[in-house]
Every structure is written in C-alpha cells, then in structure tokens.
User: What shape does this take?
Amino acid sequence: MNASIAPVVPPRIERPLERLAEVLVDYSTRVRRDDVVVLAAPSLAGPLVREVYEAILRAGAHPLPRLGLDGLGEALLGRGSEEQLAWVNPVRKWELERADVYMSILADWNTKSLSAIEPERQAIVARAQDELRARFLERAAAGEVRWVLTAFPTHAAAQDAEMSLEEYGDFVYRAALLDHERPADRWRELGERLKRVADFLSARKELRIVADGTDLRLRTEGRTWVPSDGHENFPDGEVFTGPIETSLEGTIAFTYPAVFQRREVEDVRLRFEGGEVVEASARRGQDFLEEMIGMDDGARRAGEFAFGLNEGISIFTRNTLFDEKIGGTAHLALGQSYPETGGKNRSALHWDMICDLRAGSEVYADGELVYRDGSFLESALG
Amino acid sequence: MAELVVGYSLELGEGEILRIDGSDTAAPLVVAVHDAALAAGAHVYTNVSLEGLAELLVRRGSEEQLTYVSPMQWEEIELIDAMVTIWSEINTRSFSLADPGRHGRYIAARRGLSNRFWDRIGAGEARWCGTLYPTHGHAQDAEMSLADYEDFVYAACHVRHGEDPVAHWRGVSAELGARAEALADVSELRIVGPDTDLVLGVAGRTWIAADGKINLPDGEVFTSPIEEATAGDIRFTFPAIFNGHEVEDVRLRFEGGRVVAAEASRGGDYLRALLELDDEASLLGEVAFGLNYEIDRFTRNILFDEKIGGTIHVALGAGFPEAGGKNRSGLHWDLICDLRSDGEVYADGELIWRAGKFLAPVEPVAGAAGVRG
Assistant: This one.
C-alpha cells in the first residue's frame, strides 16, 4: 500500500467555457451567417460572454451584447415609480421582435438581492413585460427566432447549491455534458432518448401521478409532448407538455422549495379542481405564493407538466434551469404555457415547481403503470 | 457626480428616456447615474460594453461584421431624449496594434449614428454629456496612482466631499458666459509665447462657453477662427495625441490659414499624414482658452487636457457650425499650448491674457452658456 494520500477529485474538464460556447452557438441555436444574435448577460458572466461572442463571430453572424450590471435590477424594482416599473423599453421590444437568435446567460452576484422587494412590484413588471414575452414565444413557436437560456457558474449560485465555486463549475459542466470530447454528439444521443419518451406520452390521453402527498390526474390528449434536448435551455433534458387546462384534479406536494424570481417557497401543496388551484399552502412564503397565483386568471392553472430526465443532474441546487431537469423528477408550472405544446393558458406567470419522484412514486398513463421511482419502465416504452 | 450629470448637465425630466453608455469597468458610476435618473422620474436603461469585445471584433471580425450597424441602432438614436457616455478604459492602448484600416472602418461605420445624434442635439431634440470614470488605465497615462487620479478627476469636476457641484457649475456657466460675450467684439487674436507668434481672425464668430453641460469636467471658451486668416508660428509644449498616437513637440507655421510647415521631435510622419487626411485638415477649426484651474497638469486625455487652466488650444480640421465655423474635415485634432509661465494674448492689439490668466475680470451673466459641438 502506498503511504501517500491522493485526493479524490474528478478529472478536470478541459476548456469548459470554450466548449460551452461552441455548443451554444453551433448546436443549441445553430447560429448562421448574417444572423442577428442578441446576447443578454450580466457583466459577471464576462468570461463566457467573450467566448460566445467569438464563436458568434466565427459563425459569420452579428453579436449584439446586452450586458447587465450588479444593482440595476434592484434599483428599478426597489425605487422605481409605477410608471417606471411598467415602462416597456422599445429597444428591448425591437430586439425580441427582430433577433434571429436570442441567448440569455444567467449569472448572479447574489441570488437573494431581490428579497426585500414587495411581490406586487415584481408583478407590475411581469405584467408589463407579458405582451413582449408572449410575442417572443409566438415567434419561437413559429421558428422565427431560436433562443437559449444558460448559466455561468458564480459564487452566488455555488452558495445556493452548497458547494465551492470549483465544485459547482464541475456540476454545471457535467450537467451540460461538457466532460465529453464532442458534447453536441452526446446531446443528439440524449435527444433520441427524450424523443422516445415524448412519442410514447403523446400517444396517451391521461396521466395519474402518485407519490407521497401527491395524487394528481391530468389530461394531455391532443397535446404535444416536446423533447427538450438542449436547444432552448442549456443544459437540458426533459419532456414537457401543456396539459388540458381544465383537466387537473387532485393534489400535488412539491418536495423541493419552489423558487420564483429568486424567492423560495417551501413545501408547496396545491389542490386542483377543474384545472384550477383551489387550495394552496406553503410552510414558508405563503404570502408570496398567493400574490403570484393571484397575478392574473391564468396563474391559477397549470401551463406545463414535465418529466426531468437528465441523469447528469442528481441534486437540487436552487436553480430551476438545473433542478427541473434532475433525472427522476417531474415538474408542473403554474401560468403561461408553451404554444408548441398546444397549451392555451395565458399568464404573466410561469413558475416551475418540482417534485422528486425517485423515492417512491408511480405514474400511470391511461391506467397503465409506466414509471416507477424516478424512471420510465423500459417494458412500457416498448 | 451622478446627480450633477442628471440634474445639471442633462436636466433630465420625468418620463424622458436616458441611455447610459459605459463599460463594465465603470459599473459604480453607471449604477449611480441609473439611480439618479430613476429618482428624477426618467425611463433609464444602459448600453454596457464588456472590456475587450470591440478589440475582438476589430481583430477577428469579417468585413461585414466590422461594419455592421443594426437597423435597431438607428431607431434607438431617434428614440432617446438623452445620452450619457462614461469613458473608462482599462487599457488606453488596446488598439495600438490593431490594423489601422480595419479599426478605421469599424469607427467610420458607426460615425453615422453619432452624427445623427449630434444633428438631433443641434436641433434641440436631445442632450448628451460625456464624462469619465477613473481607471488604472487613465491613471497610468496620467502617471499617477489610481487614488491620486481619482482625486484629480473629482477635483476637476468639483464633486469632492462638502462641495455643491451644481452651484459651482452654475457659477462657472455665468462667468464663462460673460467671458464669451467679452470676446465677441474681438476681430483679431495674437498669441505670443516661446517659439510662438500666431495671429488668428475671429471677427463675426461666436465664442461659446463650455460649462459642464456636454462634458464633465468642463471649463473653456472656444470658437472657430476665420479659416484663411491664421498666420505665424505656434509650438505645442504638450504632446499632441490622436487615436492613441503621440506626437511630441509639434511646431506649425501658418500662412493664409493653412499649415505650410510642420515639425515634431517625435511622430513627425504621423503629423504630416494627418495634415494630408483631406483638404481642410491643415486649416484650424477651433481656438479656445482652457479655464479650469483645478486641472493643473497634462494627463494624456483630451477631456481634461484641453481645459487645463492657463492653456490655449487650437484644433486642426473640423470647425463648429454653431460658432460660425465653416471648415469641414474628417479630422478634429486638439493641440494644446501651455501659456502658464510665459505667454501673452493680444486682442486687437490690447494685452488681455498673461501667464495663463485673463487680465480683466468679467461680471458673470446667468444663462449665457452656448452649445459645444
């Protein structure tokens, strides 16, 4: 036995930001010559922005960086007048209307910097921006704009994930499958698997989800299940649909804290009748929960139901982009649905809430057991 | 500083749209101006660049990418009521090795946008203010520590602790306005100093007070001289800087308004190349008195250098239409002459300025400020 003690660390991922930039530009958004590419990011994501900017140039397209700075958002939300909060900048409107590609990079200095903002002030902004967002999703569904949302690892996100920055970086890059020579090929493989699940579910009419505190029925007949394989979110790995708006019946208990606009609501339980939330409780953050689901009519209905299928993400890190893809989870979003699923719900809200199904769960499709303890049954998928 | 920009320089009103241009390096000032604009009831947004991206584009972009201006940028120029530009370079020489042709085309492609905005400013439809956030790069050019440079910048802007910057700049505005009025009747200026004896015609031209509206810091009165009247010699004691190139100890001889001899101890070739840029690059577009006495040294940044109290500067190339200037050129190159220790200026034969100061005081007049183009 050797006397020296070697630390146990996973091997380093080579050139992660360069690889990430390449996948985002070449695979996720397929940037082409002469495309106008809006690149929205906080300045904190500078190292990734530079790599992406260069990759966009290599593709022959026109990058338009839109950089945020620490404190600007809090200032508006905290001190803006009602007119200022509700102002829609025409420049942002033009960007959303004309961009061929829209890339957003998340990177927080502090994920809790909006904690003191009154929820109704956030709701004013959300309502004012709603028309823009709806129009953008319409363009995306029509194939007029390709978009992607990704994350740059920061100390704040690492802190939420309860890790060091280096460990968190590894987590992000592995979730993005960057620990492979050709990440885009791995995403195509994962896409095949997701498509198989999506095709299977699209042929079913009704789902019943049973887990601790959860027994929920929903209908998806005529709706499309979409395999989400790294084109709009990155990393990715889920299949999602927009359930029939009036069909949800029963209760669902979300095992993970529900995070929206960087606020956490713990232990959310919802009871649906005729598709509407008729009871909503939380152990912490009840006021915020009620404020958000009271935002508009559509906020009480589900706009999305999905299964997380990225086996590279196994732990909760308080960041929806990653959490909703944890392999072995399901999530439901209150509010706005994605038009490409056939979902018709309209709302300024889109709040993903996640349920861990790995420790004891069953999902039935048209009465047949198809999923147990976090995995689809191979026998059911056929 | 932010309150001075928003409240005094731009006089931003409720519901007006302000765009803040700056880089991530200037984040503290960008955020402060954003705050002040919110407090003023304006709709404010930022146009933040990331250090290094422009260099990347100039170095690696294709010709189309280099010269691409989005139609959205044109619409944006029509939309905004006010713009503030915050300069804050991390490295003031990051384009030194860039291909001059590519860099030139990058700049030229975007010049139309700023020209259009200047037209709107001229028509009274929009306002602009340019200022600076201190960085190591600028401090290094000034041969100072960052802490010393910050003191220098904030003193020049009169925003140090305990000062009332708005009251100060209102006072400057009144005084410079009076100075501009006093110069209005002058037909001929003669500048005399070491190796310098230059005559300029200014009859019928308008002197304009630069009083902190368009630049912060500010502090000069300027006009565009009669193009063909300049005659004699001038020697510029400070290095003359253009696009990051330094030319040292420039000496020019004028005849009939035009440079007929040009020499420099360093950078002479660059000097002569600029003079030949176009037909009117060898005529003067500006003559001005620097009157900000908090700025007492050369720092290789024209925002400050041209306002050094006790200096005179002339610019080769484009003149200011609002001053009556007729010179059109792609060049506008300010060259600064230190007259603080040994200089005299005569107005129609009368000595009006000696050793860096006007001899006769003026009675300040309120609201006499002009516009700087």
Observations:
- Chain B touches chain A at residues 15, 24, 27, 30-31, 34-35, 38-39, 41-43, 45-46, 48-53, 56-57, 60-62, 64-65, 68, 70-72, 75-76, 79 (CB under 8 Å).
